[in-house]
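Treating backbone geometry as a discrete language has practical consequences that deserve illustration. In the encoding step, the backbone of a single protein was reduced to a row of integers, each denoting a local shape. The amino acid sequence and the backbone structure tokens for this protein are reproduced below.
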Amino acid sequence: MIYEQELLFSETKKTMSARDKRNAPNFLRNQFPGIGKFGIPTVKRQLVSLENVGLIACTNTRLDDQEYFDFGVHFFVDDYDFGSPYENPEKTLALYSQYRFCLTPDYSVYAEMPAWRQLESVAHSRWCGAWWQSKGMTVIPTISWDRYPSFDFCFEGVEIGSIVAVATYACRQQRMSFMRGYDAMFERLKPLAIICYGTPFPEMRGNIIAITPCHPRQFHREI
């Protein structure tokens, strides 16, 4: 079915006029008017049960995954392992929509990136979340940041009081930098709860749901 959809899209694209291509929604990406000076799409606040939260990596999802239907999908893997949630969102809709909820893709905001690339990563993540929500999925925004200049945009596109997700598993050597961003995020977004992939730092505030990274098909809540 997915192959047939891709084939139809490919054939349709060949017959599109230049004007049609110019105005195609997935070229303009203007389906979700954002707020703020950057116009980043907004991931709307949604609630999920915070009891027995489990996560499965996007790289380990599969169709008709009945064993893990009640899990959420996370993207705390290398960017090149995501597949194509932004470039070709229709391709992964059937796959991700079968799970209870989905975190937005954790596109990297590396210190080595210029600000425009960091902004692009944030915008791509929020766009995916807004698009999935428009298709009826439950979505939790993933929040990531770099140093202080990125605070100008890395918390945009998320409603105040949302449940959000962060990761600490790769931040053990940058604890102070992580906490500066975390505190700024906490003050700005006032999250209802924080799903934390990895062991939380003791100074992290809020209602934290900790998830222990473990076997790829066995992401369970940390006790």
